[in-house]
Amino acid sequence: MTTVFSGIQPSGDFHLGNYVGALRNWAAAQHEHSAYFCVVDLHALTLEIDPEELRRRTLESAVMLLAVGLDPDVVTLFVQSHVAEHTRLAWLLECTATMGELSRMTQYKEKAARGEMVRAGLFTYPALMAADILLYQADEVPVGDDQRQHLELTRDVAIRFNNRYGPTFTVPKAAVPRHGARVMDLQHPEHKMSKSVDSPMGTVGILDDPAEVERKVMRAVTDAETRVAYDPEHKPGVSNLLELLAVATGVGVQEAAARYAGYGQLKADVAQAVIAMLAPVRQRALELASDLGEVERLLSAGAARAREVAAPTYAAAAAAMGLSAP
Ligand code: AMP
Ligand code: TRP
User: Fold this and answer.
1) pLDDT tens-digit series, residues 107-150
2) Annotated catalytic sites, by residue?
3) What's the rounded Cα separation, in Å, for the pair 25 and 20?
4) Secondary structure of residue 7 in the 3-state scheme
5) Torsion of CA 312, 315, 320, 321, to 10 degrees
6) What pTM value is reported for the model?
7) Which ligand is nearest to the CA of 146?
8) Which of 80, 161, 198, 238 is the most buried (most CB within 10 A)?
């Protein structure tokens, strides 16, 4: 059985991009693979976040992972900081990766450009992400398109480590969905939908109520033409809507495009399809939110299971590099 690992930051409200680019694929993967899913709270510290907010969002993120359908009896669901091996292996990998490699990461460059005080952790972030993945000997990492570059770095670091210190890590690959890997902002379809960009009308929250989803989709920016066609380069707004329809209903993007003579009906159908897709998630999230004690208990059991795999991998890596056993 292959192993999958993925993580999500508890740094904001989860949106439609997170759902179709990542979370729904995690739920789909859980029964065919040995699966580890992690709320990466340490990564959230790389940008300013209020301590109380981080604590609250960490638990809320776990609620969302359960709400999208992850079965805690089947997957190992945990919080990154609860398993100390993540930071321990990250150091070993910081001593394997190079400054040049880390400097080329576009996510670092984008985020660094936004803040005056750039934390050292923002720069070394991909080494911690590589540690997350390599600790569990993951074969596949289901993520959206924006994480491809981090996965390439993880592969390079794993290969370099194995060559220099002996076979230690499985070299993982990214599993990026064919549609929905890059959901665009509904108001600014040239930018990806994102929790950090201040575009409330362009971002559909997974927990938005149906009326809100409808309002946002109906007001989505399209273009001056009226022709429905799938052409992400020249018609990013319309193509984004077609991608969403494809993901939510299973129809192909070209086939969907052929069905519509104008934008109004397309938007109305996209709104209804997205509402229907999110409805069960929203329902489960509301139910789970009423028993956070149970969610905490599941996370604690998840961390114990994760440690059983992470500890021997870390010990093997440390020994391979020449660290003496305690
Ligand atoms: P983040 O919100 O940056 O922690 O991302 C969590 C997961 O959602 C990662 O796998 C991302 O690749 C994915 N993701 C984030 N934004 C989008 C988007 N606009 N479209 C598709 N996937 C996304
Ligand atoms: N960097 C990822 C993001 O911003 C989050 C993440 C951290 C992650 N560690 C990971 C994703 C390990 C996959 C695997 O979305």
Assistant:
1) 999 988 887 789 999 999 999 999 999 999 999 999 999 999 99
2) 111, 192, 195
3) 7
4) strand
5) 150
6) 0.95
7) 1
8) 238
